Structures are given as C-alpha cells and as structure tokens.
C-alpha cells in the first residue's frame, strides 16, 4: 500500500533534521585554556602555537560540517513527488545553503587569522594597537579588535544603519 510507504518516510526525518539544524560552529570550545607563565611575554611562541592549533582544529571542524551539508543535500535531493514536500525541502535547502555560506566565510576569516600569526601580527587590535588579550582571543579566536574598539565599531554601525 503506497500510503503506508509514504507515511513511513517522514518518520525517519526528525533525526536527520536535527542534525541539519545544528548551528554552524561559530564558537570553538574544544581546547584547554592557556595558562601563561609568570612574566611570560604576550604572544610568545607558545601562545601563538596555542592559537594556531585552536584555529586549525576549528577550521577542520567547519570543513567537515560543510562536507556533511553537501552530502546531506545530495542524499535528499529530489526525492519528493509531492509539491508540498518539495517546498519544505527547498526551504530546508536554502537554510542549509545559508549555513554553508556562513561556514565558508568563517573558514576564510580563520585562514586570514592564521596568516596574522605567521606575520607576528596576531593578538593586537587593528584599530588602536593594544593587546587584545588571551581570554578574549580564546572566546573569539578570530578577533582583530580589542573589546573597546569593537564596541565602538558596533555602535557606529548601528547608527549608520538606523
Ligand atoms: Zn582597540
């Protein structure tokens, strides 16, 4: 009976949907916080290495997510004869495409941050030049501004938009 077969399909969906809805890793927490030695120089080689490894692990996690999105979409593409089902699927796909786009941008940002480390420029505010700080960088490894400059930039941005 085709009806039964049709009913069986959506039952499987929730698990997959949950996986697809998992937000992009805009945060990366999978590391031990760095404890600098007393008197250790800011952005010592060891600190640079610490952030380099955070950024690299984060990047590979994101790239796996991109791969998963692509294969998920390939698996599910064009399997619904019902227009209503197709509409739902298209909505889901566009959501996934946006997620993928965000992930791609983040990967680019991570790459440019890794370059900053190579150039010994990592960890300093690009606007005022002060140290961004280990704690802030661990919370936002791709941060290029100190908290003050970032806050100011966000206020300006809001004023320009509003
Ligand atoms: Zn600053």
Summarize the structure.
The chain has 162 residues and is mostly helical. It has two domains: 42-122, DksA, coiled-coil domain (Four Helix Bundle (Hemerythrin (Met), subunit A), Up-down Bundle), CATH 1.20.120; 123-162, no CATH class. The chain is built from five helices and no strands.
In helices, the fraction of residues equals 55-70%
**Tally of helical segments:** 5
Query: Unreliable segments (pLDDT under 50, ≥5 consecutive)?
Result: 4-22
Shape assignment:
elongated
Q: Explain this structure to me?
A:
With 162 residues, this protein is an all-alpha fold. The chain starts with a helix and ends with a helix. It folds into 2 domains: 81 residues, Four Helix Bundle (Hemerythrin (Met), subunit A) (Up-down Bundle); 40 residues, no CATH class. Helix 2 runs antiparallel to helix 3. About 12% of the residues have low confidence. Helices cover 67% and strands 0% of the residues. The site of zinc ion has 8 residues, from helix 5. Zinc ion (ZN) binds next to helix 5.
């Amino acid at each position: 009976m085709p009806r039964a077969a049709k009913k069986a399909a959506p039952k499987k969906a929730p698990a997959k949907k949950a996986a697809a809805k998992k937000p992009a890793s805009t945060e990366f927490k999978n590391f031990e916080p760095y404890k600098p030695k007393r008197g250790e120089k800011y952005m010592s080689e060891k600190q640079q290495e610490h952030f380099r490894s955070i950024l690299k692990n984060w990047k590979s996690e994101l790239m796996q997510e991109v791969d998963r999105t692509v294969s998920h979409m390939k698996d599910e593409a064009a399997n619904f004869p019902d227009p209503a089902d197709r509409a739902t699927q298209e909505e889901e796909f566009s959501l996934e495409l946006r997620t993928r786009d965000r992930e791609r941008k983040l990967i680019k940002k991570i790459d440019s941050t890794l370059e900053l480390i190579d150039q010994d420029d990592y960890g300093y505010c690009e606007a005022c030049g002060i140290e961004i700080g280990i704690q802030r960088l661990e919370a936002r490894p791709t941060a290029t501004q100190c908290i003050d400059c970032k806050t100011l930039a966000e206020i300006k941005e809001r004023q320009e938009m509003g």
